[in-house]
Every structure is written in C-alpha cells, then in structure tokens.
Design a protein that fits this description.
- There is one protein chain.
- The chain is α/β, with parallel strands linked by helices.
- The chain contains six helices and seven strands; from the N terminus they run ααβββαβαβαββα.
- The protein has a domain of 154 residues: Glutaredoxin, CATH 3.40.30.
- Strands 2-1-5-4-3-6-7 form a seven-stranded mixed β-sheet.
- β4, α4 and β5 form a beta-alpha-beta unit.
C-alpha cells in the first residue's frame, strides 16, 4: 500500500511581469531626475571632495533625455550686479579676469566641476561653440566650483584630458555664491550680451541648452534682442 504525498500549494511569484515593469519605470524616472544636475551638497568649495578621474571628451557619455524641456520665460536682458561684473576671476595660468573686461563680446558662462556628471556631458557642446564662434565675438568661460588652493593640479589635468579650448577660471567664494544662487546646483549656464547684461540663464543639463545658446548668440551678434528662455532646464 503506497502513501500519497500531500499536494503542494502553488508557489507565489514575487517578481511578476507587472512588478518588474513598475520597478523598471520607477528606476528610469529616478535616473532621469538625477541626471540633469548636481545638488548643493556636491558643490562644496572647501576642498573636501577630490576631483574624479576625467574621461576624454571623445568618450563622454551620450546625453540623456532631459527631465523637462525648456520653454520661453525671460524676455528682457537684466543688468548683472556690480559685484558679479567686477568679481576677480583667476585663469589656469594665474592671470586675473573680470566679466567687465569682456564687454563688447557675447559671453557664455558655464558653472561646472570636474566631478559633476551632467557638467561633463555638456563640455563637448561648449568646446564646439567656442570653436564655431570665437572669431565672431563670443567668449565661452568655464567657472569651476573647486577650490583653487587644493584642486588646481587636478583641474588643469582635466582640462588637458578633455581638450577644453575655452578659458577655465576660479572665482572667489563670494562671487561663486552670487552666481550659483538661488538654485545652488550645477551645471548652470549664463549668456551675457555685448553690454554685459544677462540675456538668459539655464539651470541643469539638457541637450537643448547648446542649441539655444547658439540661437541667442546669433541674435545678439546680429543686434537683435533675443527672446527669453526659462532659467531652469531641470527640476
């Protein structure tokens, strides 16, 4: 006489197809939200963060879809405060520079850091803008968040590895805070007209920023007042 084995209850699947799909969607949305900018805790100027090893521009990661598409907002150029126009900046070779020295040019300011992923992704765009517009009166200026006193060597090495063809500078803490406010995140991009007034400002990374910077520069060089954009490309 054989004994019958009790029937096993069907095993419950924890990771069903629907759950896997939901998890993938949440993870993707989180990745997009975090890919467009670096937060305030990352942008310390006290030297506590060590610059990451750079990846050459030719091997930079492909741009991700922006969290939000830019839309028009600013319509009239805005004068910069004197403390910004006259803030002393230092180039990699130790020379002093002020924004007021660049009046007469369209100036593209990019606030960045070597360790900021979104900043790295847009560097090739600014290299190309500098290359295409340098003879037309456009000056691209990269203002790094890192402390000159203890990161100078790593920043110089990064610029060399990425083959950055525009000026990279440091600014004092007061000037940096003024430029960064009110969002306190990087990257940020300012576009100044030939009169030194702020035409537009972008916070966060988006592949569209470079296109809009070119559009603004073309209009400013042609003597037109460019239409405004939002000052946030990512939230």
């Amino acid at each position: 006489m054989t004994s019958e084995q009790p029937a096993r209850a069907p095993e419950k699947k924890i990771w069903t197809g629907a759950r896997l799909a939901s998890f993938a969607l949440v993870f993707s949305l989180l990745a997009v939200a975090l890919s467009s900018g670096c937060g305030p805790t990352d942008s310390s100027r006290d030297g506590s963060k060590v610059a990451a090893s750079p990846t050459p521009a030719s091997a930079a990661a492909s741009p991700r879809k922006p969290a939000q598409q830019p839309s028009s907002a600013r319509t009239t150029p805005t004068p910069l405060p004197d403390e910004l126009l006259n803030a002393t900046m230092t180039t990699l070779d130790g020379k002093s520079l002020k924004l007021s020295d660049l009046k007469g040019k369209v100036v593209v300011l990019n606030l960045w850091a070597t360790w900021c992923g979104p900043c790295r992704r847009e560097i090739p765009d600014f290299i190309k803008i500098q290359e295409d517009y340098k003879e037309r009166g456009v000056e691209v200026l990269g203002i790094t968040s890192e402390d000159e006193r203890n990161t100078a060597e790593s920043v110089v090495e990064f610029v060399k590895d990425f083959e950055i063809n525009y000026k990279v500078v440091w600014v004092d803490a007061k000037g940096w805070e003024a430029l960064l406010a009110p969002r306190y995140a990087i990257p940020q991009t300012y576009v100044l007209g030939t009169d030194g007034n702020l035409i537009d400002k972008f916070v966060g990374y988006s592949p569209q920023v470079a296109t809009m910077v070119r559009d603004i520069a073309d209009q400013a060089l042609g003597g037109q007042t460019p239409g405004g954009r939002t000052d946030e490309t990512a939230k």
